């Protein structure tokens, strides 16, 4: 029984390990959280040495969800991308099982009519990796038939549907600069909590007020607890517009799930940070 929790990145100016040398920040982060989103690979495929460094700084059970390059998913839309895909797969190979799933994030313009192209793309990928697909077009969330067609394509590839839950964030108008910025950028779609595989992945966006964030994730505590009882091994990523308290929130979420599923092992205590943060990490 295993629940991985993490954030959108492994360093942030508000986190004390941000003052460490860049080559040591992931190691420090991995003592707080057990997973991280792989957003950096969306913008540039890393050299092998970089992925080897990531692996060296984390335990074998740590989970990365590296994102396919934007040239593949957004710019060329799966057409003529063989070289880019091969380079990406080669680059993340040093992560081994730490690459828990490779993330196919699709733009909001990717509509139900484009699903056959996704099906072809997934069929051509090696089965040595797991895959997770994030869609943002409203039709996938509003129509059961459309959602079912996508689920069939994902099931055929053994891929997971990766939801980004922004329902709590959009419940009330923004109240900070970071929230106002996120208001214009984040997808506004219905909450989805159906797992297709034994390793569901969830992205949850709360508010800059930690209490609001905690209150909004209550349904996810129940859902994730149910997945664990079914023998699944989920990964949950906690976001807020400013992400200042994201690592603490990730650990708090794990604690809340463990309260519902006592058999879940607690997270280890974070390693001491050999740095001098301006303020300690606290939630409330």
UniProtKB/TrEMBL annotation:
Residues 265-284 are annotated as: Disordered. InterPro entries: DUF72 (IPR002763), UPF0759_sf (IPR036520). This is DUF72 domain-containing protein. It comes from Cryptosporangium phraense.
